[in-house]
Every structure is written in structure tokens, then in C-alpha cells.
Amino acid sequence: MAKDKANRPKARLPRGFADRHPGEIRRTQRMMAQIQEVYERWGFEPVETPLIEFADALGKFLPDQDRPNEGVFAFQDDDEQWLSLRYDLTAPLARMVAERFQEVPRPYKSYRAGWVFRNEKPGPGRFRQFMQFDADIVGAASPLADAEVCMMAADTMEALGFGKDEYAIRVNSRRVLDGILSEIGLPEGDPRRLTVLRAIDKADKFPLPEIAKLLGPGREDESGDFTKGAGLDDRQSEKVLALLDPTADPQLSEDLVTIGEVVKRAGYDSVIIDPSVVRGLEYYTGAVFEAELKFEVTDDAGRPVRFGSVGGGGRYDGLVGRFISQDVPATGFSVGVSRLAAALAAREGASAADRGPVIVTVMDRDNVAAYQEMTAKLRAALNQDGAVVPVEMYIGDSGFKAQMKYADRRGSPCVIIQGADERAAGKVQIKDLAAGKEAAANIEDRAEWVAARPAQVEVDADIETIAAAVRAIIG
Predict the structure, then answer these.
(1) How confident is the model at residue 269 (pLDDT cuts 50, 70, 90)?
(2) Least confident of 5-9, 173-177, 434-438, 450-454
(3) Are residues 223 and 160 both part of a single domain?
(4) 223: domain range?
């Protein structure tokens, strides 16, 4: 036994990854169905790409002589070629379009959903595996395509139930910033450009003095971890920080002017021009956008929490062209599914998505078939006209007390109880578990509890009567 224990693997989850519970999964599925409906309404079609790509297809994340660069999870196949878990859904789309360039219509409008993986330092709300839901237009150089993506992003937020005062789609253009970076001595290809972009991208999280540290020598956070800066001098940093000054008149490129006119004429007041939007990835070449939630919720400790950015994207005219001998314009938007689902959960609280099944308890092992018959008929009665109400019979070996504990752990709204006395009388007991907890909190001893039977009702044992009582409980 000691040897077995010593060799037993430890149950542990790798840092930066998470298990998901039923309520979260159901809420995410419902949310993704709503997003898909919006994307379809705008004429976008579904496509899937694999989780694994050749590492060189991911652009800047290329393998060095011994291992892949920081940022991706990668391994070598039996041909000693580097493969990587996809970092996002955009680079795989660019590879697919290039590979099927003569087949796909252009402009090519598609959407994709799936897991992406980043080999980066995890932290609160920052995971190494998370889900994205992308929509892209490949083959349209006009800023009208950027405007369309922004308006569709706004429709998506409203389809999910966010009011116009609760979110904003913020838009900027990298062309102004790229010009300034070249002006201060950081031409295209300079490795410091990406560090600058990532520093500016944190403007919604840090005050300007902290951004200045990231543009300069670097910044040490509260934990003592040090992030190396871009190494700009004071003059260079001031030029970049001037773009983030909310009191200054924004420098508008021609594409921003067009986007602004189109969205205004179409009535999308929630799409706004904001010079602080940059996006941290280097492949963006023009307009960039970010979906931001503006409302606050409170965490378990009562502290205010603001979710901020829950999605973003932009124009990436160079990605497809990496694979073929011509430039191919493209633009797109990505929803951060996990973050957006967390925001919805925090705002809405518990919902039907978190509710467990109605449980039919088994009081008499000699009549299991009768309990199963009741369960099947009740399931059929409750799940009509599009309703989804899970119903199950307890199939464990434990007694009544353990069955009630099981129902509680499953988050069941109610349990159906029929012992020998109830069967003889043609009755069942239905216990409302949520109301029962509330009532039991005011009962001081067991005798009082037995006499009161809090939130428990007796009804006739015919299925329609039971179903009506259950509906009254679950609402």
C-alpha cells in the first residue's frame, strides 16, 4: 500500500488552465448561439481550422534553433517540423484562405469559434487556454469593411442584452501610430515596436506614468515581477504618450474619417473613435477596434469590478500575403468568450443555466420500475413547447438523507418524494429546495422542522398535477 501511495499521481491542475462547471458551460453555449445568430444575420458563414498549425504559419512566433520562441506551446513531429497549438484564430484563417485562394469568394466573410493557447504568464482572469469567437472579412480593402465589422460587434453586444450605455466599440487606426513610431526612430521591423504596442495596449489598466515606465526602462509590479521596457528616451516616450492624452484633438487618418461617417449615418452611436486603442499584436496594419464594457459589478468581497475589454480586432492586410505572391486585405473581430461569459454571469447572477435537475427520490427499492416510470412521464410532461427541464431518478445506493444531499449538490430546484404511505394514498410530496433552505433557517429544532416540513407540498400523484406543481416552483 505504501508503495502504491508513493507512486500515485497527484490530482492537480496546471497553472493557467481551468475546469468548467455546468452553469458556466450552459451560459457560454447560450451566449455563443446568440453571437452566431448575429454573425449569420450579417452574411458570415462558419468555418473550422485545426487546433494545431505549423509553427511558421503563426507569423512572428517562429521556432529558433532549439525551441519555439516565447508565446506558443510547440513540439516537433516525427519529421522534426515544429508544430504549435494555435495562438489565435486569425493566423489559421490566413493560412486556410491562402491554401484555398482560388476557391473562396472574395470578399470572404467567415466566423469561427474555438480554444486558443498562449504560453504566457497566467494571472487573475488571464488563462493559457481560452475561447474566442471570430468574424473576419478577407479580400476587402475599403474601410467600409472595418465599419461593417464594428457595427456587427455592436449588434452582438446588444443581442447579449447590453444596453447602449453599458458598452462601447472603440475604434482607432494604427496608421497614425505607425507614422509616429517611424518618426521617432522605430521603423517597421524594429523589435522595440511590439514592446511599445503592448505598453500602449495597457492604457485601460494603468495610469500614464506606469505606461511611461513600460516605454522606458521597464516596470516592476506589486508582486516584484519586472517587465522590461522598450528603452525609449524621454523625447520618444512623450511623442507616444501624446496619443493617449484625452484632452488633445485626435489625429484622424482617412480610414477613420470614413468609418466615423458610415457608423454615424447608420445610427451606431456606440461605435466611437478613441486614439488610445492600439491592440498588442504586431500584424495589425490599419483600423483597430475594441469592445469595452462600461458598467461595474461587485465581487464576493463587495469590491467594485469593471470588466473593460471583452473583445477586439482590426485590419491585418499582411497575413494572407505571407503565404502567396500578392497582398490580400483583411479585417476582423474576436470576442473573448470566457471573459464575456463571466461578465454576463456577474451581472445576471444565478439563472436557469445554473439550475440542476428535478430529482425523483427512491424510497422503496422494490418499486424502482415505478419510480422510473414516473420519471419518464414527468420528463416528457415538463419538456414541451421548447422547454428544457432536466428530470432524473436517483440511481445511487444511498438512503433518503444522502439523496437530499445529492439533490442539494446538483442545484436541484425540487425533489419528488413518494414512500409507501404516499403511494397507498395516491399522493407525492414535492419539496422546494431553495424555499426550504430559506424557511429552515428560521426553525430552531428538529421537532419543529418535522412538524413544519418547510416548503414541502403534497399533491395528487397524476403526472399533470405533479408537472404543474414543479412548474410553479421553477417559474
Answers:
(1) very high
(2) 450-454
(3) yes
(4) 17-51+86-348
Last residue within a domain, chosen from 323, 348, 373: 348
Q: Is 10 part of any domain?
A: no
Give mean pLDDT, residues 307-313.
Answer: 87
What value does the mean pLDDT of the chain take? 87
Q: Are 429 and 458 in contact (CB under 8 A)?
A: yes
Alpha carbon distance 416, 394 (integer Å): 10
338-382 confidence digits (pLDDT tens):
888 888 887 776 555 578 899 999 999 999 999 999 999 999 999
pLDDT average, residue stretch 200-211? 82
135 occurs within a structural domain: yes
Work out the percent of the chain whose per-residue pLDDT is above 90.
57
3-state secondary structure 274-309: CCCCCCCCCCCCCEEEEEEEEEEEECCCCCEEEEEE
For residue 9, what is the DSSP state? P
CB atoms within 10 A of CB 320: 23
One-letter amino acid of 68: P
Query: How many domains, the chain?
Result: 2
* Residues that constitute the known binding site: 88-90, 118, 132, 136, 279, 283-284
Is residue 69, in this structure, part of any structural domain at all?
no
pLDDT band at 394 (very low <50, low <70, confident <90, very high): very high
DSSP result, 45-85: EE----SEEEGGGGTT--B-SSSBPTBS-EEE-TT--EEEE
CA distance 388 to 383: 5
CATH number for the domain that contains residue 132: 3.30.930.10
Within this chain, do residues 466 and 339 fall inside the same structural domain, yes or no?
Answer: no
Choosing from 329, 348, 367, the residue where a domain stops is 348
Binding residues for L-histidine: 88-90, 118, 132, 136, 279, 283-284
Task: Please indicate, yes or no, whether residues 217 and 234 belong to a single structural domain of this protein.
Answer: yes
Residue whose grid cell is 419510480 = 371
pLDDT band per the 50, 70, 90 thresholds, residue 451? low
Q: Does some domain include residue 9?
A: no
Can you tell me the distance from the alpha carbon of 356 to that of 379, in angstroms, rounded to the nearest whole number?
14
Q: Give the burial class of 56: count Cβ atoms within 10 A of its Cβ; 0-12 exposed, 13-18 middle, 19 or more buried.
A: middle
